[in-house]
Amino acid sequence: PGTPAGSPTAAARPMSQSSTARPMSRSSTAGAAQGQEPEDDQGPVPAYIKTSIALVCKDPTRRDYALKATGDYGRALLFASPDLQNDRELVQRACLNDGWTLQFASEDLQGDAELVQLAAEQDYRALRFATRAFLADREQMLEAVQRDGRALECASAELWADRALVLAALGQCGMALRVADEALRADREVVLTAVRQNGFALQYASEELRGDQEVAYAALSQSSLALPYVSEELRADRRAWLQAAPARGAFWSSREQMLEETRREPGLLPFLAEALQEDRELVLGAGAVDPDALALAPESLRADAEFMLKVAAQDVRALRHAAPEMLADRDVVLRAVENNGVGLEYASDELKGDRDVALRAVDSRGLALAYASEASRGDREVVLRAMAQQRSSIEFAVEEQRADKSIWLYNGGGPPKEDLLGYMHETLAYFETLRQPTFRITAVATADSDDEF
């Protein structure tokens, strides 16, 4: 949500990187769908978020209110007036708190190089909200990819063909090869740089280079998971096996040893005898270590719904390797999302648009809203049930829902007047205990507006 229309990164999957993750600020929930969820993402809305949003909404034109609110919760900028969303100092303060706040800044500030780089320092994905001009600026994007190679996915398509810039990105994140220009994915030096950083990037190299012995061996030495992407000729060469598993200089002697070794190194699955590749316990053990090991499993297992659901119960990401017909089966997908709603990501497009499937998914995991159809992300009930599980899932709702103050503050309802009434009755009881009453509360009246209460 918030990705500029027509951006080449609008549907891109974020790339993994081996470097240590930057700690999240207390209000930064942007990466929750991809990694560890923030501590404040469950249960009731934390007081500092409620207070920040309520303060801005009290008077969206008050700069002092906005400064205080965005210092605590950057995304409160969403509720500020357009003039304040164009206030550079205010936006800078908000982006320092949470880089994703850039999406709520004015278009002029989304093109401010210093502000965009500041936001990207907090989270490279904040670049998605920069202007097209910024994303096409070679110098600015070079600075961004040198800091985090994954930023290449946000650059303009023209820069994906810039050899020096792509090499700089691949030195930080080999998987950035995915978005590189086709000519560069056939460039031997470029591909070697990528696979030496992350062998799994071999999947994005040209067919010719996947059959290049030096390139293939470099990838296998870095990660045995590159095995499925090596040319068929090289996969049949035992030397490729030794590159992927140098410590196993001889073939295994027993099933028990094979089971132990594949659990330790799932990428060895292709080297098992055909009968053992069908061994469910062995493949299940490998999938528990690395769900991508299922890419190496035989098709018969990947088309077996019961088996794949069992693997997905260990790690839902294994579903990305399930047979397409299985992911189009409504009953199978319903069972998968009941166990982990994020499994909706791998369902067929038709089932992603199924309201009942979406509801079942968000009831299990709020952030499953990110993978629902646009209609479901605009469905108020679906959004509220997602937020009941994980508050930050509101980020994936359509703009109309994200801008609804009642959803942010009161989970779609009205102000909690009953709670305030209870407090007033407690106060009355306190005065009764003083035994020296100087006044009496005779009635409590309520109004529709919490400001008039």
Q: Would you kindly provide a written description of the structure presented here, covering whatever features stand out?
A:
Helix content is 47%, strand content 0%. It contains 27 helices and no strands.
Number of helices: 27
Unreliable residue runs: 1-14, 16-40, 249-253, 449-453
Report, as a whole number of angstroms, the end-to-end distance.
36 Å
What is the gyration radius calculated from CA atoms?
26 Å
Strand content: under 5%
Q: Name the shape in a single word.
A: globular
- The portion of residues assigned to helices is 40-55%
| Quaternary structure annotation | single chain
**Counted beta strands:** 0
| Strand and helix order | HHHHHHHHHHHHHHHHHHHHHHHHHHH
Mean pLDDT: 80
What class, by secondary structure content? mainly alpha
Major sheet details: none
Spell out the key features of this protein.
453 residues; single chain; mainly alpha; globular; disordered N terminus; 47% helix; 27 helices; disordered C terminus
